Amino acid sequence: MNINRILLDGIAPFLESYYCKYSDIKEFLVFDGSFEERQRKAIHIIEDIMVEHRKEDLLRNVEELANVEYAIRELQPSARDHVVHALLSFILGVYINENFLKPVSSVGVDRFQWKLAGLLHDIGYPAEVAQSAILRHFAETINEIKRRLDVEAPDVGFKVVPFGFEELTDGFNSFDLIQNRLNSWGLQINARGEYNEMIKSKEIRHDIISSLAILHVVDFLYHKYNPERRHKAISPPPGKYFGHDVNFNQKYFEEDVVSACAAIYIHSLPGKCFDHSKIDRSRAPVAFLLKLSDALQIWKRPSIKNPTGFAASLFDIEVVNGELRFRADIPKSEKDKINNEISSALIAQDIRIR
Question: How far is CA 305 from CA 4, 78, 82, 177, in A?
Answer without folding.
Answer: 23, 7, 16, 40
